[in-house]
Fold this protein.
Amino acid sequence: PATEPPLPPSEVARNHVPNTYLNSNLTHEKIAAIRAKASNLTKPNLDYAQSNDTYPESFPHFVRGRDSLREHITSLFTSRIAIYDGAMGTMIQNYAKRNRLEEEEYRGERFANWKCNMKGNNDQLSITQPHIISGIYKEYLEVGGSDMIGTNTFSSTTIAMADYEMEDYAYELNYEGARLAREACDEVTAKDPSKPRFVVGAIGPTNRTGSISPSVEDPAARNVTFDELVEAYFEQIVGLMDGGSDILMVETIFDTLNAKAALYAIGEYLEFTGLDIPVFVSGTLVDQSGRTLSGQTGEAFYASIRHAKPMCVGLNCALGAKHMTPFVEKLANCVECFLHVYSNAGLPNAMGGYDETPTDMAEQNKVFFENGWLNMVGGCCGSTPPHIKAIREMSESYKPRKLPDVGRPKMWLSGLEDLIVDDVHNHLGLPFLNVGERCNISGSIRFKKLMMAGDYATAMDIAKKQVEDGAHVLDINVDDGMLDGLKAMEKFVKIAVTEPEVSKVPFMLDASKFEIVMAGLKWCQGKCIVNSISLKVGEELFKEQATLLRKHGCAVVVMAFDEEGQAATEEEKVRICKRSYDILVNEVYFPPEDIIFDPNVLTIGTGMEEHANYGVDFINATKTIKEICPYVKISGGISNLSFGFRGVMKIRESIHAVFLNHAILQSGMDVGIVNAHEMLALSEVEPDIRVACENLVFNKTEESTDVMLELTKREKALREALKAGGGAVEVKQVSWRDLDVVKRLEHALVNGISQYVDKDVEEARQQAEKPLEIIEGPLMDGMNVVGDLFGAGKMFLPQVIKSARVMKKAVAYLLPFMDQEKREKMIAEGKDPNDFDESDDSNYAGKVLMATVKGDVHDIGKNIVAVVLGCNNYKVYDIGVMCSCEKILEKAKEYNVDVIGLSGLITPSLDEMVVVAKEMSKGGFKQPLLIGGATTSKMHSAVKVSPNYFTLEHPVIHVLDASRSVTVVSSLLGENKEGYVTDIMEEYDEMREDYYAGLEDRYFLTYEQAKQQKHVIDFDATPPAPTPSKLGVTLIDDVTLEDVVPYIDWNPFFQTWELRGRYPNRGYPKIFNDEAVGGEAKKLFDDAQKLLKEIIANKSMNLKGVVGLFPANRTDEGEDVLIYATEEDREAGKPLDRFCMLRQQAEKESDDPYLSQSDFVAPAGYKDHLGMFAVSCFGCDALVEKYESEHDDYNKIMSQALADRFVEAFAEYLHRVIRTDMWGYAKDESLKEEDLLKIKYVGIRPAPGYPSQPDHTEKSTMWNVIKAEELAGIALSESLSMMPAASVSALVFAHPESCYFAVGQVGKDQVESYAGRKEMELPLCERWLSPILNYERD
């Protein structure tokens, strides 16, 4: 069992040496230089050590300088779920709602004359308004009960502060943000030393990304380097630690390369200072694809940063807890350290805010606690101290996540996806990692020619083909004397990481010069392999190189070379590898599982006797090395083995098949650089060739080389004969290239294939009247498919960008033809075709201005939109971030643009967009206005922005995501603009009406007024239903699944699977005719029928229920219903129980009465009755368990969906039995099953907790009366959910005037009366009724 998370390699970490907190003693030259240029007005205090006797020595107390924080966190995280804080930005916004916080307050006195706008720079408030930040810190500590608080330093790097021209203040911002947190933590700790509070230095992602190109024309372009990120992060870390931070947290990671730079900087700081500082890392998965913005899965993200040995890893931001659940579960199953989550308070609403209440958010986090996934929990956007308090209280009943047991170390690599090498089997079924060799200049002549010509785009096609053919890892080698290897490696890697089909696998960076692999390494966000280092450079340089690679977190190939040369014999291979292993593991602390030895695959079959045993030596050495060097891998360049037979691939691959089969299965070889497409299974080697190969590889006969040469000549002759026209007829494989040209273009766009674009576009042009028709037709159709797939989560961002680049290439091909068309038109009009304006932009499809609004520095989303539009022949003027309204309008006029696009990520940006819209209207602008960004929404655009500017000429349109931008802009600038805009105008008008209708302050009657206007039934004219034929409680256990099948309503089934037909094909069975979902719906339905029949045949589910029918009358005041065990009890006035009812209070525009369910039951003096039942479908849980064990998620969900259908059908069936038999008030009913589903019967069966009686606590009364748990095994949870989940309960009212209705919101006067009648404390009653209260609870 693990007793603590994996430890960093430093001695102080391994020995749990406490941090001294005497930072003035830290005098490394880099640290001193940062302090020397700091902007602090006074000399900062750097020391935070406490006297050893400040607090008791035992946990949970903590004294700085005396105790190991690593040990304390381990004790804390294993004893209970620790509490982090919530959102800083939300709290600042909340402060601004109650107090003035404008540009003047952001500037303060010190920056009153600053050269640019400062509003929105929240980190700056630590300097200019420290009381605000201190107050927020204390609220999280005192109200929320946070054990740890993050500093207000999310953007406090020189890189991010450049937007405010405050680069020189980075150190001070971090110092002050940490100092204020330190003071707040110490103040609160002093009040209760048994709960020490800690400062977490927050390190954000910056507003630049190392893995994504900002330029559509150049996928190798970057706006920041790894070294620049490291430098910026290092300065931030010094400021955070000097300010008193206890822990460092790299958070909100959307690009893992940035995070690796931050972790590298932390590593440098720890090395320079000799301290042990716990490190936390928090990633951000941007949507339901479960990937970061740069495309990595959660598991790949963890594999990429685990080398830094963080104490705690987790997820934050972007999603609410509900949407994070599957990704948290995946991380919980793989991370070796502690795990945390601090989610948003749900997803942003239409107005950019967050709707989850503290109770909601705590409930959404509950699944994490129930499953034991977390050690620390907090909140991100939208969360406040009350949210954290609610989460803390919810977590207190649950145990923290147990650290996973320590297992056998495994090599864990990553590209966009993770790869555990020890678990890999290749396409031939062998336990072997295929490293693709074709992106290696020495392994492919074609690749070499492409690299020499600078044709990186086609080189990417080779890389992609390697992955398609079965390469698990991609070898990249650009070593050539005529090539600048360092620049070529950098450029190739930077382009490759933007190609999802390539970068989904890890890379092997392969070079003879160490500086070349280092250059490539700094552009890889994943965990890659470096090939190679060796002892031939001497022991000191070998250790230096290995240490640097360990810091970067990569695996390494170690060649069997030393100062004396290459190992050729078995003995030499073993000796050098063992020496290398001991140095790496014992001196450099290199993880042994990340070492790959290459004992040198040397060429056999040369005719030289000394070479004949090379194959045997390698195989034997492999086995010995694996035995004496635990956990290492063995690799080799397999093509070297058969180099003497080059030119005849069949012979070469046959030799490889024999060699690999023995090396892998007998000796444990793990890795090989191969051409996976050409590899043969041993069974595929022809018998005579196999014998010859075995003789050659194992050096069995002296003539083995000669025999192999004869076979080589034979195969050459056969190949020449085939070339001359003999041999078999080629069988053509079905390919997407066989489709018509429109479909080929669509396929190329969706899959990002640029290879055939020119050819296909030319073919399409030949069929069209004008080149423009190709852009507006098949190309736009293809991009619309891309948009649909992206919107549906079936494509992620890097793929969309790649599709856009294909579009760009297609448009570029058409532009000369469009120019020629223009020239011919000018000639026809008698004009000089050479007399043209150089600034003429008429060849562009349109001009778009893009801007991030004032106060907002986020621009990644805007940049992506610019890229996509640029790829579709739109001229984009991107004027940057923090753009004032004046600048936006000025530039729009200057560039004479056709469309203006506004972007924003933070909530205040929404208000700024409204300002811009108003000013555009005042200024007489005519351009359409596009709105986009994470906090924006269609509803906000319709309600807040649109009324200030929208007309048919210049609409306001919300753009959901980047992939939709082309469709929107092309529609606005196309011939059908009026129809397109009219549709949107009507949609926005309806949305506004709905919004304001919901916001109107509805008038509520007093409870007394509502009672006076209740529904009055004349029970003399329409008397109560007759006495039931079977009074009391009845167990129902003889109804079979076959009995209820005809009563199944299939519509909710399709809704469960999120399949919805469009008019006129809504609902079952019309959904099968729907063009979009019909086919899938029919397939789903057929699968359901198959499983339904299996369940019935196997009796794997069964039905059980309880029915109660009792004498009943409403109470004298008319608001509740009393039930009696017998008629005698009714006569004697001895009620069995009381069912409490709620009445409508919201004012109605009609004369309709204010309903309560009690209105449907006759008062005393009449012999009325009330029915009730609870039913369940049992057996589903066992079936779910079975399918889970078989990893069959489809049938697991299908089982649950069918169980729901069975129990609902059972309820419908049983209600009919009650009406026609048990109560018998509708004995002559002859309705068809479909009429039952349309509720054409007499009476109703409302369920407690639903609109007619929205109080779940009434279920407790029902359960007490009918003994549902005792008789039928149907239980109620703490929150009054029915168990099993497939359960239904209801009250049964028989009077023909009874009807379904919604109580709606109720007032405090009714709630006080209701609580009194239920004999329930008012606060508890209000808690249960909170969703329907028309007032705020105290």
User: Anything to note?
Assistant: The CA atoms of residues 4 and 820 lie 71 Å apart. The chain is about 45% helix and 10% strand.
